[in-house]
Write a structure and sequence with these properties.
The protein has about 180 residues and is an alpha+beta fold. It contains 5 helices and 9 strands, in the order ααββαβββαβββαβ.
């Protein structure tokens, strides 16, 4: 069984703690989950970068080896057999590591449970009606308060639907 998350930032937030506290022990599961050595599969053809980077090529994540993986949470460095290490967008990858998928499912369920406490949900729209950002805060099960904002329209739409199912009010603010 494999997992492909629709939003790379959502995956990243699940992989890495979003707790705003300075004490890393508050979010122990996020810090103990492996972030490197994850088995992944390409879900797109990247042969323009290397002939071995065909769709369904499998690789393993490695510590931030490339410039893009070090500078952006949207990329991860992946070692492919016969192709070396390349920085790949999370959205171009499918996680096939069973252990990680089990842990991600558990963390995702915990986060969905935490989002039931969301408040101060504000959808900021531009002057022509386009999404600028969706911001909200919620109480973590670890005792902290998380303040989150996203400019991803897809992620915002998913969250707004989730908030509707939880009967959480979403305030729409339009910029002039």
């Amino acid at each position: 069984m494999s997992t492909r998350y629709s939003t790379p930032l959502l995956l990243y937030r699940i992989l890495v703690s979003t707790v705003t506290q300075s004490d890393p022990s508050i979010c122990e599961p996020c810090h103990t989950m492996k972030q490197y050595g994850i088995q992944v599969r390409l879900n797109t053809d990247l042969t323009q970068y290397h002939p071995s980077l065909v769709k369904n090529a499998e690789g393993v994540t490695v510590p931030n080896a490339g410039m893009w993986a070090r500078g952006s949470d949207r990329f991860v460095s992946v070692r492919f057999e016969g192709a070396g290490i390349h920085d790949i967008l999370w959205e171009a990858l499918e996680i096939i590591d069973e252990e990680v998928n089990r842990e991600l499912a558990k963390l995702r369920e915990e986060r969905l449970e935490d989002l039931k406490t969301a408040r101060n949900v504000v959808q900021t729209m531009g002057p022509r009606g386009g999404l600028r950002c969706l911001s909200y805060e919620y109480d973590s099960r670890h005792g902290g308060v998380n303040h989150i904002a996203t400019a991803s329209r897809k992620e915002a739409e998913e969250l707004i639907e989730l908030f509707k199912t939880y009967n959480i009010e979403v305030t729409v603010k339009k910029l002039s």
